[in-house]
Design a protein that fits this description.
This protein has one domain: Alpha-Beta Plaits, CATH 3.30.70. Helix content is about 30%, strand content about 30%. It has helices spanning about 20-35, 70-85, 105-110, and strands spanning about 1-10, 40-50, 55-65, 90-95.
Length: about 120
Amino acid sequence: MLEARIYVGLRDRDSHEQIFETDRYKAVLKDICKGYATPFSVQVIEGGYFHDDGAWVDENTLLITLIGAPRKTVYDIASDVCTIFHQESVMITCNKVVHFDVRDRRNADRARPSGVCTLPCVG
């Protein structure tokens, strides 16, 4: 199963300012994801970076996590977000994930007393 994360900064690509309140961007983002009928979660991240001219920039970023979405859906959502939020780019990271249901007796038999998950990583 694929976990995709899309990071989108909230500063406009031309004005280099955040135009709207973060909650407004979140609402729009939720509507975009709902339109693709795929499960998602959204987090707000505060951080910063050095601009090409060397100046420090504080930026709010939205992190969209999609688990189990087809790659095309991930790219389509990223493209829509980039266009609607007026961004030069967004960053996408992807990882394979394993679903582990502790209620499943077969999984419980494999658990170690230390509580450490011993399932092999998916490569």
